[in-house]
Amino acid sequence: MPFFLHKKKKQPTFPVLTTLAEVLQAAKQSSDFVKQVEASKDGEPIHVYYYQSLIDMERIAPNVLHPLKQVDGISNKALQEALYSAEVEQLEDVVEIEKRLLKGSVLISFKEKGAWQNWLVDLAYMKGREMNVPEIEFSVFGSKESFIEAVETNLALLRKRIPSSDLHMVKFVVGSETKTDVYVIYCASIANKENVQTVKQRIKGLQIDQVPDSSTILQVIQDNNNSVFPQLVDTERPDRTAGALLEGKVAVLADGSPQALLAPVTALEFIVAFEDYLLSWHTASMLRIIRIGAVLFSIFATPLYVAVLSYHPEMIPQDLFATLVVSRTAVPFPPIIEALFLEVTIELLREAGARLPTKIGQTIGIVGGIVIGTAAVEAGLTSNVLLIIVALAALASFTIPVYRMGTTIRIVRFPFILAAQIWGLIGIAIMLIFTLCHLLSLTSLGRPYMEPIYPFSFKDMKDSIIRLPIAQQTMRPRFLQAKQQKRFLPKHNRQQKPDIDDGY
């Protein structure tokens, strides 16, 4: 049984508070927790508790404090009448009261007929990052909106794009300590019931203490956690998410995360950018072929250099061989050391550029690459030919629209380089067979990862390596097993050519 579905529960890290007095006593240890005692017109005390860091301080006086002072004889009915403009709810469950306090509610307590009455008023105010253009999946065409950390805003973005009650959003609370809101989203009349139940079951069975980001959920609910290849797509674009939902996929949104998870997916979806659907089918198909070629070049360019120079120099054309000999004359290292040195250097530059502030990171990436590359060639540590190959391979890996898969391609390259040094071209072939077998064994929510290549599906090839015109995309992908396979009727989109004299 996977570890995240294990039924054995560990003891909670935080103490479990069973009475309201314990909750309030623990809260008083925090400087941002406020207790106020107001008095009604007849002098009866009303206790008000809240975290000032979580509520809208501009609303508490007009919506809560002032109306309470006008109450003549405090009671449940009088409170509801006084706070008619606010969202109030009476609760007795101590755990729920603590949860609501920590979500930005105000607790109002008073005695009625000798018993304490507890009411909560929702005044939550969570100021976060404003909506901005997508940073990772930026596109020239299409929407410039992206998800942010507030899950309510993200849900609204999807509701705006799919204004239908058929769009279901099911809430789960994940994380024994963080109590993070996680939503499973799907179109009930389209999505396959088995896919939906699988996602719900895996999220419901999670036994983890915190969910800082949706990436945490991705790592524990995907089918094979030991694979370097991602089996779910994460995206920051609401339009891409809405399009996936209408295809029959399932989306997952977590509070505090600016990305949605999409499942099930195939390997070819990682080379698809949402902008492809906003361009002509000729342009989109060409760009996809270029990306596939870039992936292959990024993986095999450096290993082929190592294999050919180490084991198969007879394969090099005579003119090119002379150039390689001249470029390697002053290099004292074998091709494998030379290649690993440059590959590691490129990775260091990438990491340094990613961790530094934007402007400094860009400078480090460009200037650092030029300076280090030139110095390495002049010092005789590497040849200029390999420098060009490694630089082009690094550039090619950036063409992949999904960052997570781009990182995977960077990692996969190193085993191929080592295999090329040990067995030459045979080593590359062995690694390729091993990688293909691994890819063929992978699944996403139990669906084949390499579909429509294996198992082969001619109909799904319409939107894979190439993209046919939208008018011909009448069916949803077969591997999703959607309840409604047909998207639209093609005959409704046919344009009738007007007669030459129409309009005169």
UniProtKB/TrEMBL annotation:
GO aspect biological process, one term: spore germination
Q: Which InterPro entries does this chain map to?
A: Spore_Ger (IPR004995), UPF0353/GerABKA_families (IPR050768)
- Answer whether the UniProt record assigns the keyword Transmembrane to this protein: yes
Coarsely, its chief localization is: membrane
Question: Keywords in UniProt for this one?
Answer: Membrane, Transmembrane, Transmembrane helix
Q: Where does the sequence pass through the membrane?
A: 289-311, 361-379, 385-403, 415-441
* Membrane topology label: Multi-pass membrane protein
The name on file for this protein is: Spore germination protein
